[in-house]
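FAQ

Q: What does a record look like?
A: Structure on top, sequence underneath. For example:
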């Protein structure tokens, strides 16, 4: 088991809608404030999406990412900043011709999906390896496009966080490590509970963990009501954890979390009650081989 456990907080995501909870951070100020409060509660890393401040809808505007990062860095230089690169991979086929994209499709050239990474150079950024059904739509991340995104990350000096939705994603990542596209043993995150992906069970976590290269740094998180059970399961199997309103908006059954910090505090309580210790952001930087923040 890890000597200490890194808690990552994913503060807003792009699927939760503002009408589902009044506590979802939307504006850059709200997102940055939630990240800082999560850090105070015990998170050593924050995973960040941005949203249109006027509509609350997902956005990929570089200036919004930059404002969030700048606001965080003015108050906290140690907190690990992990920016998403997931948006831009969704395809909705039209009813009459499945080759034609219908409204809701977001497919973009790989370099556009990582434009903000090249410009802002955060500590870490996510790299999705999944091609899968996602609700009624599909998400597409072909090996060629993943390689193009990974090249931009390497040139920017940003550490990829490999987001794993099913076992095939691990096989792809291992091939990318073998051919030198990615550095091993890697930073991995298991996404559990997305429909048609990994089931949120102890068997799944154990199976996925045992496929990783020796020395890999890994985390896991559960969607919805499985968020906190997976916190315990990941810790028991030697991994790190993630919580946040991107994945779950409830503190307990029927009780909305009023902040991301509440979710982090509950995860911290679970880990410490099991005998674990929480890694500070500075300790987590050492664990991940990261230097000082560049911003």
């Amino acid at each position: 088991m890890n000597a200490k456990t890194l808690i990552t907080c994913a503060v807003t995501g792009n699927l939760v809608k503002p009408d589902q909870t009044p506590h979802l951070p939307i504006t850059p100020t709200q997102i940055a404030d939630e990240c800082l409060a999560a850090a105070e509660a015990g998170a050593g890393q924050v995973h960040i999406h941005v949203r249109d401040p006027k509509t609350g809808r997902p956005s990929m505007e570089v200036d919004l990412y930059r404002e969030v990062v700048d606001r965080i860095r003015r108050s906290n230089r140690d907190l690990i900043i992990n920016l998403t690169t997931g948006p831009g991979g969704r395809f909705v086929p039209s009813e009459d011709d499945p080759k034609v994209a219908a409204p809701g499709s977001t497919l973009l050239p790989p370099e556009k999906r990582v434009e903000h990474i090249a410009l802002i150079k955060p500590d870490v950024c996510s790299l999705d390896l999944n091609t899968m059904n996602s609700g009624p739509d599909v998400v597409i991340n072909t090996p060629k496009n993943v390689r193009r995104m990974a090249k931009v990350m390497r040139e920017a000096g940003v550490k990829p966080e490999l987001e794993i939705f099913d076992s095939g994603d691990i096989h792809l990542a291992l091939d990318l490590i073998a051919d030198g596209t990615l550095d091993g043993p890697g930073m991995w995150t298991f996404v559990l509970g997305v429909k048609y992906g990994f089931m949120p069970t102890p068997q799944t976590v154990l199976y996925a963990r045992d496929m990783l290269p020796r020395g890999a740094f890994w985390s896991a998180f559960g969607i919805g009501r499985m968020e906190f059970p997976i916190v315990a399961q990941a810790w028991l199997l030697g991994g790190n954890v993630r919580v946040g309103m991107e994945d779950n908006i409830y503190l307990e059954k029927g009780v909305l979390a009023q902040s991301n910090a509440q979710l982090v505090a509950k995860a911290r309580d679970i880990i410490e009650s099991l005998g674990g210790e929480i890694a500070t952001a500075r300790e987590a930087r050492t664990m991940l081989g990261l230097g000082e923040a560049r911003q």
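Q: Is there anything notable about this one?
A: The longest strand covers residues 159-164.
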